[in-house]
Every structure is written in C-alpha cells, then in structure tokens.
C-alpha cells in the first residue's frame, strides 16, 4: 500500500486516489505511520490537478501533529499560498485545513491569521466568494479561541 504513494495519490482513477487519501487522513488522526511520507505529500502541494492539491492539504494537516522534526516549517509558506488557490474549492479546503494545523502548531497562528486577513478574494466569482469568506471567518474564530 505504501510503496509509490505519490503515484497512488495522483492516479487517473480519482475514486481510488480519493479512497487512499481518506485512509491516510483517517489513520493520521490516530498514528504517525504516514508521517515518514511527509516530504512525498509536500511534493504534491503544487500539483496541476486541484483534486490532488485538495487531498494533500488535508493529509499534511492531519500529519502536522506528528511533526516533531518541524518539517512543516519548510512548507508553511507554500501551504498558505493555497488560501487563494486558482480553484475556489482548493482555497476552501486549505482554509479549513489551516484550523487543524493551528491546533497542533500554534506557533503558526499569527501568520495564518495574517494571511487569512490579507487574502485577496477578488478573483473569485460572486457565487464562491461568500463561501470562502465564511470559511475564513470560521477558521479565524477557531484559531483565535486557542
């Protein structure tokens, strides 16, 4: 299962790739067994397919709690760029995942909040912008209560 995890997460069969991602996210809530692949997951942050980016944002957030080596330090800037991802769905996934990152990596909260407040949402359609704004408000509220 774990061999060639990048190929499995980027497979043409989105259903299969999604199932694998869900399994990794679920297991990462309970155990650090997937943390060793952190760099492999991080390598997919800028994947051309937004579905891959969506999955990886959640996988990385789920593994942040096991990050005693502070590998997240090297990807936080890249992770935060997805607050305004070209795809509004990916932006929403990122914003939601940031709440989980902040819970286990409180040192990032000021930076996350700053990026959320500075996010330029003007490129999104009127139908999506209110949803993204709502996600930002919810994540800010979560992070400010920590």
What does this protein structure show overall?
The chain is mainly alpha-helical and 146 residues long. It has a single domain (5-144), classed as Alpha Horseshoe (Leucine-rich Repeat Variant). It contains eight helices and no strands. α2 (14-30) runs parallel beside α4 (50-63), α6 (88-104) packs parallel to α8 (129-144) and α7 runs antiparallel to α8 (129-144). The protein is globular.
Ordered list of secondary-structure elements with their pairings:
Elements: H1 5-9, H2 14-30, H3 38-42, H4 50-63, H5 76-81, H6 88-104, H7 109-118, H8 129-144
Q: Characteristics of this structure?
A:
single chain; 146 residues; Leucine-rich Repeat Variant; 8 helices; globular
Q: Which of globular, elongated, flat, extended, rod-shaped describes the shape?
A: globular
> Helix proportion of residues, in percent?
55-70%
Mean pLDDT: 96
For this structure, what is the CATH class? Mainly Alpha
Count of helical segments? 8
Q: Give the total of beta strands.
A: 0
Secondary-structure element string: HHHHHHHH
Largest sheet: none
N/C terminus separation: 36 Å
Low-confidence residue ranges: none
Using only C-alpha atoms, the radius of gyration works out to 15 Å
CATH topology: Leucine-rich Repeat Variant
The assigned CATH architecture is: Alpha Horseshoe
Structural class by secondary-structure content: mainly alpha
Give the total of domains: 1
Strand content: under 5%
Q: For the record, what is the CATH homologous superfamily label?
A: Leucine-rich Repeat Variant
């Amino acid at each position: 299962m774990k061999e060639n995890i990048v190929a499995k997460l980027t497979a043409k069969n989105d259903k299969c790739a999604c199932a694998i991602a869900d399994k990794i996210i679920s297991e990462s809530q309970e155990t650090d067994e997937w943390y060793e692949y952190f760099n492999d997951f991080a390598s997919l942050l800028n994947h051309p397919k937004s579905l891959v980016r969506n999955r990886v944002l959640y996988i990385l957030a789920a593994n942040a709690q096991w990050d005693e080596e502070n590998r997240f330090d090297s990807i936080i800037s890249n992770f935060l760029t997805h607050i305004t991802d070209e795809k509004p769905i990916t932006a929403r996934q990122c914003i939601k995942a940031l709440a989980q990152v902040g819970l286990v990596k409180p040192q990032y909260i000021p930076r996350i909040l700053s990026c959320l407040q500075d996010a330029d949402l003007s490129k999104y359609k009127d139908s999506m912008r209110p949803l993204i704004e709502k996600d930002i408000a919810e994540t800010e509220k979560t992070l400010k209560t920590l």
